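Structure catalogue
Derive tokens from sequence
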Amino acid sequence: MKKIKIHILNFLLRHLFNALTEADVLVVSGKSVIIQGEVVSPEIRTEIISGARMLQQLAFWKLLRREMQIEANRRIYLKSLTQDDLIFGKAVLWTIDLMEKKIDNLSRM
């Protein structure tokens, strides 16, 4: 029964929800920034990089990121009743990590 549930869930997420991938939105390749398959102009690239640097410095971003981490840990360690709760908490932590890495990569350009 559990395998059927996972199979149905994977099918729904793959086919019914139009999930975006990194290649659909933002790709950093060397010194180029590619958005939706097109290399952006140097002005837009500079704006994106400065925005990433500014976001790293914002107190609100740091507070929001920390709050998300705390809530994910609560979900994993205190509130989890099922394996799905654990997976959800780990997915939140993975998302936070992904955002941090993307912002860090952009700000180092």
Q: What stands out?
A: The chain has a mean pLDDT of 87. Residues 33 and 41 are 9 Å apart (CA to CA). Helices lie at 2-16, 22-25, 42-57, 59-77, 83-107. The first strand starts at residue 26 and ends at 29.
